[in-house]
Specification:
Structural class: alpha+beta
Radius of gyration: 20 Å
Largest sheet: 5 strands, antiparallel
CATH class of the largest domain: Alpha Beta
Distance between the termini: 33 Å
Number of strands: 20
Strand content: 25-35%
Bound molecules: flavin-adenine dinucleotide
Helix content: 25-40%
CATH topology of the largest domain: Uridine Diphospho-n-acetylenolpyruvylglucosamine Reductase, domain 3
Number of helices: 7
Shape: globular
Number of domains: 3
Strand order of the largest sheet: 6-7-15-11-12
CATH architecture of the largest domain: 2-Layer Sandwich
């Protein structure tokens, strides 16, 4: 990419030029990003954002790529992730301070150790805390926003802002965090419970996940949002007769029709084909327009329309 060498010299963390995004998504799919950067700390992040702003380089924030579909053509710009560097996790009584590069599962495990309840059903949700906050990740009755107090973000011009939970609109797999602000850290308050109560809830959630999800194959979890509380996208795709439909190495899972899995060499185009097919068939059969839960990067507008 243009400015690549300058960028490489400037970054104190890691900076990988023309880095295949297939290495950084749970799907194992995605062409190269101009640069894939893990800033070392807040100062490093600020300088990188300034540079991108001055040079007019598009910037995209990601976590661990477990809810992402990246185009085969890749991403024209800089991808920034806080994974592996923004990793501070502190628990004092019922209060938790965590930087958003922390893996959600790691944070949940530490909360369980301290007999703190509220997050244990999310033990199997992959990804970073940053991705979980942006997506308002949830599982088996809890959502990450339930026990959130506030977050620190950085704007594209390097300004730090704090939002209280009341400033952000949280909904089912939705938050109103701005796309051009990176979430850096968060504070939570949980409640105390007995180890047994927590372990029971955790065990139920883990068993439910193993029973219903095709965890042996690469995916980005549920591809579409459930259109209503009592109408699952997977149920509609199944009833539309699409379970097991293949395109190349991509498949609408036999086990869970809202998981579109990669059996090895699937590319983004294969997944896009299946997305369009599912939307078209469900729309025709049930009159319901499925909305993507998975976030997409690098695609032309309108490509996911049926
Ligand atoms: C097998 C499997 C099971 C899953 N089960 C569940 C489940 O039960 N419940 C559930 O909710 N999800 C589930 N998911 C989806 C996924 O794990 C979650 O959405 C997760 O929270 C995404 O985290 P991430 O770090 O991978 O984010 P990414 O996929 O990297 O990014 C997701 C979004 O967050 C934004 N983002 C990430 N970090 C930041 C940041 N620091 N600042 C600003 N924006 C940021 C990105 O721009 C993108 O829009 C599952 C996925 C898989 C593969």
């Amino acid at each position: 990419m243009e400015f690549g060498e300058e960028l490489e010299k400037m970054v104190n963390g890691t900076c990988l030029l023309n880095e295949p995004m297939s290495r950084h998504t749970s799907y194992g799919i995605g062409g190269p990003a101009g640069a894939y950067i893990t800033p070392r700390d807040r100062d490093d992040l600020r300088r990188i954002l300034h540079f991108a702003d001055e040079q007019n380089i598009p910037v995209f924030f990601i976590g661990s790529g477990s809810n992402l579909l990246v185009a085969d053509e890749g991403i024209n710009g800089i991808v920034i992730t806080l994974i592996k560097s923004f990793n501070k996790l502190e628990i004092k009584g019922c209060h938790i301070y965590a930087e958003t590069g922390v893996m959600l599962g790691h944070m949940v495990k530490h909360c369980i150790k301290q007999k703190l309840t509220g997050l244990e059903t999310m033990i199997g949700v992959p990804g970073t805390l940053g991705g979980a906050l942006m997506m308002n990740a949830g599982a088996f009755g809890s959502e990450i926003s339930n026990c959130l107090q506030n977050v620190d973000v950085m704007t594209l011009t390097g300004k730090i802002k704090q939002y209280s939970v009341k400033d952000i609109d949280f909904n089912y797999r939705h938050s109103s965090f701005k796309k051009d602000e990176i979430i850096m850290s968060a504070n939570f308050v949980l409640k105390k419970a007995t180890k047994q109560e927590i372990m029971n809830k955790r065990a139920k959630a883990s068993a439910g996940r193993k029973e219903t999800q095709p965890l042996r194959f690469r995916s980005a979890g549920s591809l579409f949002k459930n259109p209503k509380k009592d109408v699952a996208a997977g149920y509609l795709i199944d009833k539309a007769g699409l379970k097991g439909t293949h395109r190349g190495d991509a498949e609408i899972s036999e086990k869970h029709a809202n998981f579109f899995v990669n059996h090895g060499k699937a590319n983004a185009e294969d997944i896009v084909f299946l997305i369009r097919l599912a939307r078209k068939t469900v729309e025709k059969k049930f009159g319901i327009n499925l909305e993507l839960e998975v976030k997409t990067l690098g695609f032309k507008p309108g490509i996911f329309e049926s």
